[in-house]
Design brief:
The structure is a single chain. With about 280 residues, the chain is of the alpha+beta class. The protein folds into two domains: about 10-155, Fructose-1,6-Bisphosphatase, subunit A, domain 1 (Fructose-1,6-Bisphosphatase, Chain A, domain 1), CATH 3.30.540.10; about 165-275, D-Maltodextrin-Binding Protein, domain 2 (3-Layer(aba) Sandwich). Helix content is about 30%, strand content about 30%. It is built from eight helices and 14 strands. The protein has helices at about 10-25, 50-60, 75-80, 100-105, 175-185, 200-210, 225-235, 265-275, and strands spanning about 35-40, 45, 70, 90-100, 110-120, 120-130, 135-140, 145-150, 150-155, 170, 195, 215-220, 240, 255-265. The protein has a seven-stranded mixed β-sheet with strand order 3-4-5-6-7-8-9, sandwiched between helices. It has a five-stranded mixed β-sheet with strand order 11-10-12-14-13, sandwiched between helices. Strands 1-2 form a two-stranded antiparallel ribbon.
């Protein structure tokens, strides 16, 4: 059995996230020069804020958990082999220093910092910070999900189950268009309210606090995008699984190719899956 060291105090992790965001991200918002923005791949932007925030988080987080290592999005983009650490026994800080980079680079106030602490393929804790809103949500496996807002801490609860037609959720553009076409053709058993923030961190916070009923993410499921959010949603009472095989999502030493569906509970998941399957 893998030995699991004590978890760090969540307040210490939150303090580091908030400090790094205030120092490296917020001052650069809507102040990026041309040389501050580059492309990792066509359309996949990275900014100076991403790089500097990851550097600081990678330096400051490991002392909080003995023997831990770091897997950061920007490092993994240049050296995918670092993802192999997720298969090992040591605690891994999984870092998305600036989720929603395209929003950030275009001056849209919808981005987040995401951190998960993983070990042996399990997510032990996760944190999501909204630098502009001053919100931080976190979850500890088996201990619930929480948010600090306006200085007050409260427990999070996912949305209550509802008929599919009354649910609001996040879907990719193609699936949104196909479901909207079905609804316009008279099929009322489809979601009426479909959105996409282009920032999964913000979406996961809204899933965990009941502002969104569901979300579906497909294609390349990157661990730094989903590890913390899936835990946050689960600890808030929601249910999620990979569409292919209905297996639970877990961070792996690579990028999962498939689709992840999140819903209020198992019955809602099944209903949403029936509506979306084959559309």
């Amino acid at each position: 059995m893998t030995s699991q060291p004590p978890l760090p105090d969540s307040k210490d992790v939150t303090a580091i996230m908030e400090d790094v965001a205030a120092r490296e991200i917020v001052p650069r918002f809507r102040r990026l020069a041309d040389h501050d923005i580059t492309e990792k791949n066509p359309g996949d932007l990275v900014t100076t804020a991403d790089i500097e925030a990851e550097r600081d988080l990678a330096r400051e987080l490991p002392p909080l958990a003995a023997g831990s290592v770091v897997v950061g999005e920007e490092e993994a983009s240049t050296d995918p082999s670092v993802l192999e650490a997720l298969a090992g026994a040591r605690p891994v800080w999984l870092i998305d220093p600036l989720d929603g980079t395209n929003n950030f680079a275009h001056g849209k106030p919808c981005f987040a910092v995401i951190i998960a602490l993983c070990q042996a393929g399990e997510v032990r804790a996760g944190w999501i910070h909204d630098p502009l809103g001053g919100l931080t949500a976190w979850a500890i496996a088996g201990e619930g999900a929480w948010i600090r807002e306006s200085g007050q801490v409260r427990r999070l609860s996912a949305a209550a189950p509802a008929p599919v037609s009354e649910m609001k959720g996040s879907l990719g553009r193609g699936l949104r268009k196909r479901l909207a076409a079905k609804r316009e053709a008279g099929d009322t058993d489809t979601p009426a309210r479909m959105v996409r923030y282009r920032c999964v961190g913000q979406e996961y916070m809204d899933l965990a606090r009941g502002r969104l009923h569901f979300a579906r993410y497909g294609g390349r499921l990157k661990p730094w995008d989903h590890a913390a959010g899936v835990l946050l949603h689960r600890e808030a009472g929601g249910f999620s699984a990979l569409v292919e095989g209905r297996a639970p999502y877990s961070p792996r030493p690579g990028i999962v190719h498939g689709s992840l569906l999140l819903a209020p509970d198992t019955n809602a998941w099944d209903a949403l899956h029936r509506v979306m399957n084959g559309v």
